[in-house]
Design a protein that fits this description.
By secondary structure, the chain is an alpha/beta fold. About 30% of the residues lie in helices and about 20% in strands. It is built from seven helices and ten strands. A seven-stranded parallel β-sheet has the order 1-10-9-6-2-3-5, sandwiched between helices. Strands 4-8-7 form a three-stranded antiparallel β-sheet.
Length: about 250
């Protein structure tokens, strides 16, 4: 795992977005298509903005999946991740080959099966992910399931995760934050050829420290990224504040 520290969220987004664009172009050049996973949340704003302005990405050859979505949250909600991706990304790029968004308003077990069957046909070239304040990866809160082979699973959201969503301004009250979500599983994320992990803000500094310095454990779900052969984690100075210097040695 490679770690890069940037001065601020804007520079992080630019750097990570440039790296993602290069990998997407490389996949298209190599095989005629690119399959990607996009994350949502505040840490992804600048990255998606950079991807949007990148030149020479043939989006008509790109298939997109996304990481997670709340169960029973209407797409009209400002907190809907489907809405987030449609408004902040899909509506701002040329037509993409396919975008497989998670519908949390339907039969969720059938939705997990639908997406699981689809993603097995599209080996992922590039996954964009983040780390939660509780060190979650996607919505795999601790203790995360490191063993399931199912690509998409139904998960419960712990109190720390729900408070993060409230704190970031997505909901008006803690009572409004759903208790369940559909999430891409840890094993499915790790199947990606390349992973770009981006983390911003001091509130995530302890989660970053635990994910990178503690032994791999489902109590720190993002720690599993230590085992991926092609993972680069981009941090800003605030999220990197508690990392020991010897982690780079």
């Amino acid at each position: 795992m490679n770690i890069q520290i940037t001065p601020n969220p804007h520079e992080l987004g630019k750097t990570a977005g440039l790296a993602a664009a290069q990998l997407i172009r490389g996949a298209i050049d190599a095989s005629g298509a690119a399959n990607i996973i996009l994350a949502t949340g505040t840490s992804q704003f600048e990255i998606l903005n950079q991807l949007i302005i990148e030149k020479d990405i043939d989006w008509g050859k790109v298939v997109m999946f996304h990481l997670d979505e709340y169960i029973d949250l209407p797409i009209t909600s400002p907190a809907s991740f489907r809405r987030y991706l449609q408004e902040r990304f899909l509506s701002r790029i040329p037509a993409i080959k396919a975008a497989y968004l998670i519908n949390g308003e339907t039969d969720v077990e059938a939705e997990c099966d639908r997406l699981g069957n689809l993603i097995t046909n599209y080996p992922i070239d590039v996954a964009l992910v983040g780390i939660g304040e509780n060190a979650h990866l996607a919505f795999n809160d601790p203790p995360a399931d490191f063993e399931t082979e199912q690509p998409y699973i139904i998960v419960g959201l712990d109190e720390a995760c729900r408070k993060q969503q409230l704190g970031e301004g997505w909901f008006k009250s803690i009572e409004d934050v759903p208790h369940q979500a559909i999430s891409m599983s840890v094993k499915q994320i790790l199947k990606s050829r390349h992973i770009i992990c981006s983390v911003t803000g001091a509130r995530k500094a302890m989660a970053v420290k635990n994910s990178f310095e503690q032994p791999v454990s489902n109590l720190y779900p993002a720690s599993i990224l230590q085992l991926h052969p092609n993972c680069t984690c981009y941090l800003d100075k605030s999220s990197a504040a508690l990392i020991s210097a010897n982690i780079f040695s």
